[in-house]
């Protein structure tokens, strides 16, 4: 493990890596959720776009129906705690999910993630020995004998929330095995987690080393 970490550090120095700003959603139409305070899409409404959020006070526990563009997770408590449901499409009455007047927080899944981890990014992903890289050219992967080093990994233009599951999901989206090492010393205002969900401010992956299969 020490040699793997040393390889990662040396690769960072060689590439002169610097911060990468998160880009706009790159997977097509941004997910949105239109919430209504009456059944059948009636009454007062508000629209939430893309990123995870706790609902403001005047919408906490008010939603009775909703139209979901893309796949979303809705939860009873703040910060995606308590009972949660995955939803998509039109829901004319949230009673059908047992969530009427109960939604406090919600977050969207990315278009390709869909709750099952990362798929290949739009335009393809890096392939071992193939030289195809979907990220910024100045942060191209560095190939080793038994591993591949990725500085500043992103998915669909977004930073990736830190954690072993996210690191493993990223490595597998690149056609590789599990991660051997990752750094999480930096934060970003928005990111995508290992399940393909948008998140708010969080620690994010930096310097990921992926094992070859």
Structure characterization notes:
It is built from two helices and 14 strands, in the order αββββββββββαββββ. The protein is mostly beta strands. About 40% of the residues are buried. The two termini are about 15 Å apart. About 10% of the residues lie in helices and about 35% in strands. Residues about 1-30 have low confidence and may be disordered.
Brief sketch in words of this structure:
The protein has 213 residues and is mostly beta strands.
Layout of strands and helices, then pairs:
Layout: H1 2-15, E1 32-38, E2 42-49, E3 53-54, E4 65-75, E5 84-91, E6 105-108, E7 142-143, E8 147-150, E9 154-155, E10 158-159, H2 164-173, E11 179-188, E12 191-192, E13 198-199, E14 202-211
Antiparallel strand pairs: 1-2, 1-4, 3-6, 4-5, 4-6, 7-8, 8-14, 9-10, 11-14, 12-13
Search tags:
mainly beta; four-stranded antiparallel β-sheet; 213 residues
Question: End-to-end span in angstroms?
Answer: 17 Å
| Fraction of residues in β-strands | 25-35%
Average predicted confidence as pLDDT: 80
Q: Radius of gyration, rounded?
A: 19 Å
Helix percent band: 10-25%
Describe the global form.
elongated
The largest sheet is: 6 strands, antiparallel
């Amino acid at each position: 493990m020490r040699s793997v970490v040393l390889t990662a550090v040396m690769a960072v120095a060689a590439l002169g890596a610097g911060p990468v700003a998160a880009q706009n959603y790159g997977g097509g139409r941004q997910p949105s959720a239109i919430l209504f305070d009456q059944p059948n899409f009636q009454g007062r409404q508000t629209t939430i776009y893309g990123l995870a959020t706790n609902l403001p006070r005047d919408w906490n526990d008010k939603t009775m129906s909703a139209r979901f563009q893309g796949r979303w997770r809705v939860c009873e408590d703040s910060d995606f705690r308590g009972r949660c449901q995955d939803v998509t499409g039109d829901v004319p009455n949230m009673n059908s999910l047992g969530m009427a007047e109960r939604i406090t927080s919600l977050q969207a899944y990315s278009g390709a993630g869909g709750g099952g981890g990362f798929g290949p990014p739009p335009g393809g992903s890096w392939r071992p020995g193939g030289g195809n890289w979907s990220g910024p050219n100045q942060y191209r992967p560095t190939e080793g004998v038994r591993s591949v080093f990725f500085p500043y990994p992103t998915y669909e233009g977004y930073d990736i929330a830190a954690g072993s599951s996210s690191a493993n999901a990223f490595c597998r989206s690149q056609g590789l095995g599990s991660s051997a090492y990752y750094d999480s010393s930096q934060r970003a205002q928005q990111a995508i987690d290992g399940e393909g969900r948008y998140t708010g401010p969080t620690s994010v992956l930096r310097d990921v080393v992926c094992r070859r299969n």
